[in-house]
Amino acid sequence: MDKFLVLYLLLIFPAFIGIIRYFLQLLQLWQVKEYRIDRVASYLRYEKKYTQIGTILWLMKIAFLVNGVLYILYPNAGYLSFTYILAYVLYFMHLEWFITDIISRRLVRPRVKSLRNLLISSAVLAFIVSIYSRILVWFLQFDFHNVNFVSPEGLTLKNLADTFNPAIIQSEEVIPLLTLVVGLTLCVSLFIDLLIPFWTFLMVMATAPLSYISRKRKIMAAKRIIREKGSGMKIVAITGSYGKTTTKELIYEIIKDKYKVAKTPLNNNTAVGLAQAVKTYIKGDTEVFVVEMGAYRKGEIKQSTKIVSPDIAVVTALSQQHVSLFGSVEKLYQAKFELIDGLKDDGVAIFNGDDEKCQMMSRETSKEKVFFFKKNSEGLKFDKFKMNTDQLSSEDNNLYISNVIDLGDVLDVQIRYKGEIYRFKVGLKEERFTINLAAAILVALQLGMTMDDIITKISSWNYSVEYLKVHKGINESLIIDDGKTSNKEGFLLALDYLNNKFEGNKWVMTQGIIELGNERYYTYKELAENIVEVSNGLISNDDNLITAVRNAKSNFVVTKVNNINGFADAYKFNVKKGDKVLIEGIFPQTVLNQIIVYDS
Length: 600
Fold this sequence. Notes:
6-stranded mixed beta sheet, alpha/beta
C-alpha cells in the first residue's frame, strides 16, 4: 500500500505542478485585463503568437488524452503507450520551468492581495484536489494483497513489458494494475488540464456578482462624499488616448501650493478606481480634485462623470490605442466625448487644438471651450481648424506654445496668452511634454491663478515626469525608461528623444503596443521605419513588430524573446558597455531589477 501511494504521488506531482503553473498564467491574464471578457477576447483575437502556441498545446493534450484512453481500453495496442512517455515529458518540463522560475523569481502569477483571486484560486485548487482524491479513493478499494503489484525498485528492462502488457489469466485478458494506475492517472491529469481554462472562466463569472456589489458600494459611497462637498470643491477631469497621467501630475504640481488638492493615484482611471480615490483622498478641506478618466468601451467615462461631474474637462489627444476594444475609432471618439457631455452646464472644456479629433469634438459642444496649441517648424497648426492667427488679441483665451529651446537640463519655453508673450525655463526632459504643460497652465488659469503665479511656480519646481527616466544599466549600459503604457505617439517621440539625446550603439526593448486591433499593421509599419532609422537593434517578443522591423530592414539586428522572463537574459547577452537602451512600455519589476543598477 505504501509503495502504491508513493507511486501515485510521483505520477501526479509533475502534472499537478504543470497544471498549477498554467492556472497562475491564466489568472494573471484575467487580472491584467481586469477580469473583462472583452479585453481577454481582444487579446486572444489579436495576440496570435500566444493563441497559436496555446492552441497547439491544447490539441497535443487532447491527442494525449484520446490515446491514453484508447490504451486503457485496448492495452494490446502497445504502440499507444508511447503517449504516456510524451505526456510525462511535457509535465516534467513544466516542473523544471516552475522550479527555475521560482529560483530566479520569474514566476508569472497574479496579485496575491486580492479577495477575488483568493476565491478563484481556492475554487480551482479544490476542483483539482477533489478529482485527484476521488481517483485515489477508487484505487484504494483494490485488495493489494491479492494483486501481483511490482514495486518500482523491482522493475527492470526485462520485466517492464510483462508488467504493463495484458496477461491471460484463466482464459481472460487481465489489465495489470500498474498499466491502469499510470494510464488513468495520466488521463485524469490531462482531463483536468484541459478543463482549467473553462473552470477559471466559470470562477471569474461566479465571482463577478461579488465584484459588482463591491464596486457599487464604493461608487455609492463616493457619490455621497461628492454630494456632501457640494460646490465647495472644483473637479478637474482629464481624458484622451495618451498624456492623461502626465497632464494630471503637471496640474497637481502647479496648483498644489495655492489650493488643497487631491488627485487620483498613478494611472488609476476607471470608475471604481475613481470611487476609491474619492473615499481615500478627499478631505473636509479639499478645494480641487484632479481626476483621470479612461475607458475601454462606451459608457465607462459616462459612469465616472456620474460620480464626479467636472467643472473643467481636458481632452489631451485621440489615437488608435485600444481601438480593438471599441471596435472603431468612431466608437472610441464617442466614448471620450462622454466627458464633455458630463461637464457641468457652466463648465469649461479644454481641447488640444493640434489634434483633429479634438477639433471635431469641440464643434459638437455648446459649452465654453478653450484650446492649447503648439508651434512646430511649419508654423502653428491652425489650417484645419480655420482659426485666423492674425487676430490674436487680449480677448483670446487660447494658449499657444510659440517656441521651445532645448538647453539640455531644462527647456526654454515661450507661450502666448491674451496677446502677451511669456518666457520661462522648465525642468522637463523632452519637448513632447510641453503640450501637457500647456493644458495644465490653462487649467490653473481657469481655477483662478494668475499667469505670473503660474510662471513663478513652474520656474522654481524640481518636478520631472515619470517618462524617459535615465538609469544605469548592467554591463555599464544606459537605460532610458519610457516604461508606462505605450502608444504610437509616445513611442515615436521616445525614439526621437533617443536619436537626438544619445550617441553610440542604441537598442529598443519593448513588448509592443496592446489592443491596436486592425490598426496594428499601419502603426507598426511606421514604428518599424523609425526604429531601424534611429537604433541598432530590437529586443522584443511581439512577432508583429519584429516582422514589421525586418520588412523595413532585412538585416536589422533583432533578438526575439519567447516570454517576459527572457527579456533580462536577452539584455545581458546583447547589450554591451556604453550601449543605450530605450525601454518602451511596461515591464515587470522582476525584469527591471535584473537590468537596472539601483544606487544603494
